[in-house]
Task: inverse folding
């Protein structure tokens, strides 16, 4: 075969391949949580669901955190993200710690509730939030909702970081180690119940999870309407012999409001029809119904999500 004929055949074959190639896939970037937490593998499960059930999508998962995810979705760093309702609520209203309103952030699905824990060493002499003055605290890194909630928690007791002896910011593992070693007396976090980090700490040291009085709850809700009252049932943790009143926040999925309505509709529908797969990753998600997913968290619904929930007659 001469070189001219080969070249013609090569070009013809290339043209056929180009004509038969699929159109460029729609890239969906999801900001999740730190590796080692529940959001990251949950985002991986959503990746599989969306790519399988919404043709033409290519989903990428990236680590993140509650507050930074809101900013990332707003600033087109991602199409979707996991959020905590209290932080997303702050964002869409332009409240601290956000500098401007995140007006391109919409809600598509409510997943599960996370409980705020203020865990103290039993011998630290801390019975209420007011007793935290002068004590050493460990909490999540800035940019995490748990850290923001910690500041709000201190505020209703007339405290801030400056009135504590020391504040450390890091991972759950680091915080547990600090209390085990006596380098901190207080550990604050938001998570599901029972929290593995708290169970780990409770296996090594006597601990107490602080009860939040009704008055302080109402003061917190004045700061942020996204806070909701919850009870940590007696027996959830070692040495806990009574129910504990606390606050918490919903974990939800957000999406850029500018995402096409049809795409948001299909993604919401695919998640709603495959919640059992998500429940294999995070037990709190298992068995969710469209009505559960449609819970109002104070953030505007994406029109595509609203369309699905109205079709499902839950909104």
Result:
């Amino acid at each position: 075969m001469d070189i001219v004929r080969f070249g013609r055949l090569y070009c013809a074959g290339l043209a056929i391949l180009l004509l038969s190639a699929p159109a460029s896939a729609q890239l969906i970037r999801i900001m999740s949580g730190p590796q080692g937490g529940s959001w990251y593998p949950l985002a991986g499960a959503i990746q599989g669901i969306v790519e399988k059930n919404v043709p033409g999508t290519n989903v990428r998962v990236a680590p993140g955190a509650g507050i930074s995810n809101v900013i990332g979705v707003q600033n087109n760093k991602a199409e979707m993200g996991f959020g905590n309702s209290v932080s997303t609520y702050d964002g869409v209203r332009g409240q601290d710690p956000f500098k401007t309103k995140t007006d391109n952030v919409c809600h598509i699905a409510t997943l599960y509730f996370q409980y705020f824990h203020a865990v103290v060493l039993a011998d630290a002499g801390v019975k209420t939030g007011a007793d935290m003055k002068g004590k050493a605290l460990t909490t999540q890194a800035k940019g995490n909702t748990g850290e923001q909630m910690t500041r709000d928690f201190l505020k209703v007791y007339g405290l801030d970081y400056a009135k504590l002896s020391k504040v450390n910011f890091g991972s759950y593992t680091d915080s547990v180690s600090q209390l085990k070693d006596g380098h901190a007396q207080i550990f604050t976090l938001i998570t599901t119940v029972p929290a593995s980090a708290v169970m780990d700490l409770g296996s090594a040291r006597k601990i107490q999870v602080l009860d939040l009085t009704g008055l302080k709850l109402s003061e917190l809700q004045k700061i942020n309407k996204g806070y909701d009252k919850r009870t940590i049932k007696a027996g959830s943790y070692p040495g806990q012999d009574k129910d504990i009143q606390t606050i918490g926040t919903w974990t939800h999925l957000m999406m850029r409001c500018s995402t096409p309505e049809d795409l948001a509709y299909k993604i919401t529908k695919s998640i709603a029809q495959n919640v059992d797969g998500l429940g294999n990753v995070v037990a709190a998600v298992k068995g969710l119904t469209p009505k559960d997913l449609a819970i109002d968290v104070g953030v505007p619904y994406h029109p595509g999500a609203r369309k699905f929930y109205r079709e499902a007659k839950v909104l």
